[in-house]
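Format notes (please read before filing issues)

Several people have asked whether sequences and structure tokens are stored in separate files. They are not. Every record keeps both together, in the order shown below: the sequence lines, then the token lines. Line labels are part of the format and must not be stripped during preprocessing.
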Amino acid sequence: MGTLNALTDRYMDEMAVLDPCLASMIGIAGQEERLTDFGPQAAQARTELARRTLRALEATPVAGNAERVAAAVLRERLATEVALADAGAYGTLLDTLDGPVQRIRQTLGLLDQGAGTAWEALLARLRAVSATLAGLRESLQAARRAGRIAPRRQVIRNAQDCRDMRQYLAGLPAGHGDGALRAALEEAAAAANEALTGFAAYLSQELAPDAPQLDALGGDRYQLGVREFLGTHLDLAQTYAWGWDELARVQRDMATAAAQIAPGEPVPAVLAALDADPRHQVKGAAAFRDWIQELADGAIADLDGTHFAIPAPLRRIDCRIAPAANGPAYYLAPSEDLSRAGTVWWPLADPDAPIPTWMVPSTMFHEGVPGHHLQLGVTTLNTTTLNRFQRLSSELHPGHVEGWGLYAERLMDELGYLADPAHRLGMLAGGQQMRAARIVLDIGLHLQLPIPAGTGFHEGERWTPLLAREFLTGHCGLGPPGFVDFEIDRYLGRPGQAIAYKLGEKVWLQARDEARRRDGAAFDLKQFHHHALDLGPMGLDLLRAELGRTED
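Then the structure lines:
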């Protein structure tokens, strides 16, 4: 891959300079003292890089199967990035999960390593917050002048995220350095907080009054989100109907699992009882962190050499409590130089309260091994058949990545690791039910679809955020305070992202079933996983095609 490798290496180096926050997220070293410029000129430069690289890719010869796949993966991502830019999607991007405000916090958090913190880099990033927010404001103003503003819900949520971030930044200097460095950190944190206060005021007082109340973005923009997050095109009506069917299937399985725990009791009562059961609780953040670390270490020890071959650098996961109290648990892959271990971040709404654990094992299998830690770690280490873009672009392929994570939960159930009915119910209630409900809600909300007859829920009415809140509370009302509201804001802010989990899992399961039928008695599950993970991250259309190929 000499020529193609040179192209992708050059692209990744230039991308890291233009987008330091993304570079930090995906593990590229060298930009630790910088934050991304979210101003309009910088955004245009990132799009131009994608266009320029796409033109160069079309002129680059490829030879052999590995290069063919590598070129297809890069081409699909670059073309999608250009399509999003041409549609004006970046100019109004304010979402609750992975927008510019969230990227700033995550990027600062990556440097927050206690005694191992890179103090000067952290200081530089704190000092950069003000300019970064100024650039974002300039982009939002430019989009506003063009008549494009994010929905009011996203504007208000981001203003709150800015206010919430201030408490975290105020505490950063504590314990970090001493003397002149400590004073500089305190001064920089105070300046960053002043910038956050001003930006929150701009969002809530200037932008929000002009922001549209309508959250639904419509079919065309939704299909662009499907392309962004899944790498495919969907029949949305058919997928919406499948989501309802899948939700009904999961709920039947939940009733069966709940009956094993408390025969005759309704499922909501069983879930509430598990939350309050001291046998399924850990007290205190430190004890909980140790508990999930032990769970992660045990899964690695059990699966290595049996169902998977786990490389030595991946036999360690760093489990940490997330700085933000809201949002889901999430995973960050090892950096490409392996200086940063794969890390599971787990948010706790109240670190001092008893923490329910019955839903935790399936989530740890999703985030750790055999889920993201194995998947993304194997990708990071595979310098033989994957180029640098493939190894580091997992963040750009949620359908592939999150689909594998959900598949990993199902696999561990099949292998007997969720034999405790409480843990299996945790997988169904915390993973499967919510992800199926997301398909119904995400498509239903953005397309304002009617609720079908026979569902028993406001049949015939069209989806609204209020109906979504009632639906999600009734079906998946577990979690910390504010969880349901966060989820709804998340769906409405980033169309297509929430369906990546279940539809990605569907592709993985279908590909495995097809391989079983094709290979018959010769089918080897371990070999199937090895081959599939060695392909690296890609869109679902390409994944389906590659796993269906019979020749090398």
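For reference, the curators noted about this record: Residues 57 and 71 are 7 Å apart (CA to CA). The first strand starts at residue 281 and ends at 283.
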